[in-house]
Design brief:
By secondary structure, the chain is of the alpha+beta class. Helices cover about 60% and strands about 15% of the residues. The protein has a 7-stranded mixed β-sheet, sandwiched between helices. The longest helix is centred in the last third of the chain and has 63 residues.
Length: about 325
């Protein structure tokens, strides 16, 4: 049954589950199903909308009354600062994941908004989140167990999954930086410089999001939100600590990036010095030859230019001088 449900979910932007105590978990396929299920005062629902339109959010607001300005933030695709806002009968969260679905680019910051009330959790995403996909899959076998613990526990599970993926993204960065570090010691190519610049921007973005979200969820960790059980405060504290470790690891990787760039610059400087030294030696070796050629190119009758073997004598003299200087430079280990 749930395998069919999961297949259908790939075709729907609207996904919802409803649960009433002592009854099976039920999937809702439309706003009409949600409106009907919402009439039961004991129901708990999780609604997820992907790529919502203004009309979708209006219909949702007619069924589950939420803050209008927060709905506008959910509809907007512009980047906003992560935050948690508390209202009379629900809380609003604006968070960011950093990973796309499994088959897409690894690092991809994407916005997620959520409304959490006494008996509902609404998540809104403009682009698919890996964390939401995984929670959907868990619902196939543990949906009743998860939602029966409260929609606030489901909210915690989603936030915890988002933060776990920050570590996954950092692990990806760490593996790639190890390869770049080895390359920077062997090959001063433009690829190293380009990749380090890209990773630096991504690390800064990840660190900024981790810091902002750590500050945003602190009220949840302190148990200050009415619609999050105080018993979950300790779990959210662990999430906050996890974000602190993410920031620390991001700082460490930034130092590694700095070392890679220094390796690249040192290798480039060494190669430039080697090239300049080679060119200088060649110029020094050619200098006496040029002097001889200049003197004997003045069309004056001086020895040996008036003899039958004058050309070969001058050329031989140049070769001997050049070889002598080459041997001297080699003995000095300049070549």
């Amino acid at each position: 049954m749930f395998d069919d449900i999961l297949e259908r979910m790939e075709l729907w932007m609207f996904t919802a589950f409803a649960h009433v105590p002592h009854k099976p978990l039920r999937q809702l396929h439309s706003f009409e199903d949600l409106e009907e299920a919402w009439k039961d005062p004991h129901v708990r629902v999780w609604v997820d909308i992907e790529g919502p339109t203004e009309e979708d959010l209006k219909r949702l607001d007619m069924i589950v009354d939420v803050d209008d300005s927060s709905l506008e933030s959910s509809l907007s695709i512009e980047e906003e600062h992560p935050r948690v806002d508390e209202f009379a009968d629900h809380i609003f969260l604006l968070l960011y994941g950093v990973l796309a679905p499994e088959n897409q680019t690894k690092f991809a910051p994407r916005k997620l908004t959520a409304f959490c009330g006494k008996r509902y959790l609404i998540t809104i995403q403009h682009e698919r989140h890996r964390t939401i996909d995984k929670v959907r899959q868990r619902f196939a076998s543990h949906g009743v167990h998860i939602i029966s613990r409260g929609v606030d526990f489901l909210l915690y599970a989603i936030i915890d999954g988002i933060v776990d993926n920050y570590s996954v993204a950092l692990t990806e960065f760490e593996e790639k930086l190890e390869g770049l570090e080895e390359e920077s010691l062997e090959n001063a190519s433009d690829h190293v410089f380009t990749e380090t610049a890209k990773f630096r921007r991504q690390l800064l973005e990840l660190r900024r999001l981790a810091l902002a979200q750590r500050e945003a969820i602190r009220p949840l960790a302190r148990g200050e939100c009415d619609y999050v059980a105080p018993t979950l405060g300790r779990r959210f504290s662990h999430v906050s600590d996890h974000l602190t470790r993410v920031v620390e690891l991001a700082d460490t990787l930034r130092e590694v990036l700095g070392a890679i760039r220094e390796n690249y610059q040192s290798l480039m400087a060494r190669r430039t010095n080697e090239i300049m030294r080679t060119l200088t030696i060649l110029s020094t070796m050619l200098l006496p030859m040029s002097l001889i050629a200049s003197i004997y190119g003045m069309n004056l009758k001086t020895f040996p230019t008036d003899g039958p073997y004058a050309f070969w004598i001058v050329i031989g003299t140049m070769v001997v001088i050049g070889l002598s200087m080459g041997l001297y430079f080699r003995n000095r280990r300049w070549l």
